[in-house]
Design brief:
heterodimer, A: mainly alpha, B: about 80 residues, mainly alpha, 3 helices, about 0% strand, rod-shaped
Amino acid sequence: MENIGKVSHWVFHLGDTRLVLNSTTLVMTWVVIGLVLAFALVATRGRSIVPGPWQQLAELLVQWFRELVRDALGDAYEERYFPLICGMFIFLLLCNWVGVLPGMEEPTKDINTTLGLGVMGFFIAHGTAIKVKGLKQYIKEYFEPMFFLMPLNVVGEVAKVISISFRLFGNIMGGSIIIVVVTHLAYGLVLPPFLYGFFGLFVGTVQAFVFTMLTLVYISVQIR
Amino acid sequence: MEITGADLVRAAAMLGAGIAMGIGAFGPGLGEGIVAGKACEAIGRNPREAGLLTRTMLVGQAVAESTGIYSLVVALLLIFVV
């Protein structure tokens, strides 16, 4: 109960500047990256026409996301954005699931992780828009339908980043706090396994999917 | 035991967190219920598209949930930061 709001830090002093790193988030992010790499290795080792279980799973994921990206962006951009979207989903899925294992914490429980991913999606979407439409047309769209609505359009674009990252962070953080509180009340006897199943596995899957889908939608809005 | 200004601030923060969560959860709950009801209607009318409808429903609900999540973040800030 006492360590709900606590974040463990590594503090470095570089001259006058003080560098604070969230140690748990960093370590757990590297653990998740290791898990993703392990999944990729297991799935691609010993590929054959008749796939094994891991290869089957990976093929299912890849095929499904390829169709999603093709539906949203069209054939021309599918090849370019499919690796980003599929990789983001697998990374976020394992990020949200890793908290179910004892002693592990979700990297997405930290606002810095989700905000970083949200800002990455923002820059990718707007870079795509500038590349596809040209800088002139891109800037012109901010002044539509009327020129004095420009501040509203800019705020709307920034609010997308805030909403997408706070949604993931709030869901995972809220779920973990509810698990801690209920475990404290019920002494870990009955409810927590179901809570881990619901908040860790179900909500984690849905939120990872929503985050990827919204990034895809933001890209496709900028292209069309 | 004397009640000082800091205690009042703490009490107001706790009360504010409760109010923020209570009122903030009202809207998303209503909206998500409506979305689920409409999805059920649509699946009843067209059961073959159940997979697509469920997927779209979940994404829509997760988006509608964001105002509730904002109030959760505000409540957490009030409890742990103030």
